[in-house]
User: Fold this.
Amino acid sequence: MVEDVAMHLAYRWFTGLGFDQEVPHHSTFSKNRHGRFEESPLFLDLFERVVLQCLEIGLLKGADLSVDSTQIRADASPDRTITREQLPEAARVNRTVREFVEQVERENMVAEPVQTSDPSASEAESKPTLRRTYRNSPPMKISTTDPEGALSSKRGPSEFAYYDNDLIDNQSCIIAGVAATPARLSQEIIAARQMLERAKERFRLQPVRVTADKTYGTGEFLSWLSNRRMTPYIPVLDRKQQTNGFYTQHEFTPVPEENAYRCPGGELLRYVGMSRGSQGYVFGAKPSQCRNCSHKPACTPSSTHRTLKINWYEDVRECVRKLSQTPEFAIARRARNKIEALFSELCNQLRLRKLRLRGLRNAKEQFMLAATAQNIKRLIRYLSQPNEPAAGRV
Assistant:
């Protein structure tokens, strides 16, 4: 790039360099990138400025949005790993691992005041001490080259990778939000919420419909969208419905006045409590009710009785199931395929199949610049053909 700026007059004009001015050395860009701009929102500001231009000229509508992620390989070998228990030892000799450990402690450990109960202690001795507890733990296998990358086998053999999360406008294919996360499925919904909140805060986008694949179809996320008046065109994630041929919850009839469910055999399964692990309410029958029931072989593999877990957000999930039977749902699902075309462009035309820099911050920077380039491409196309509608062009 530096050589092109030195040779071509158009680049000199664009960058404001005179004929006699010396072009900066290529190392200047690296020093600025890892020095002056390390904590700067420069790349985010550049991305959002382009999005605002798309919004101002009417290219970005924001009524129908889609969210998805694609896996990008990290610059780290899956053969150079350590376990969680080996972190302290590796941090002594590896600067990258040491910085990762320090970051984990800053982000995942919470200082909790512990007040002494000894009334005879002096004022200095009775001050609260700090006890630190982990909120999250590091992954089981960690790369010594890029500890923030996550080991994933989504695309075949295991590799350290990041997810490039995008929020796009279905009509114009403008990317309205970008987020970088380690390649873990649990991070996709977190990134989706952050991008939607940022789009509303920064661009005042209030989508009417949000489309995504089944990975995003948890009850909690569907409820989060519905509470913000965004219709979720997302298939419901029903892991608990895969019961190997046994009765699912759809075979049980709710009895609201009894706070119970009636099984196919006519018995009542009464409320037992909550299961925070599965985010649901637990209903159960007594062993005596199931002991001689003729439905037991088809109802439960348990030798004692049947329990039923109902998701906390079951009312929203049921609404989305009904919505999935409508023609509008099918149309939205087809429109979601445009985000796959953007990911294909990212890998095949922009050649971002593997990250060139290491670390989550640098991954975010590369994803942000790539999304900016994709948006500029569509912005130029739209401005060069003002008489043609932007809808449908990828």
Summary: Residues 382 and 388 are 8 Å apart (CA to CA).
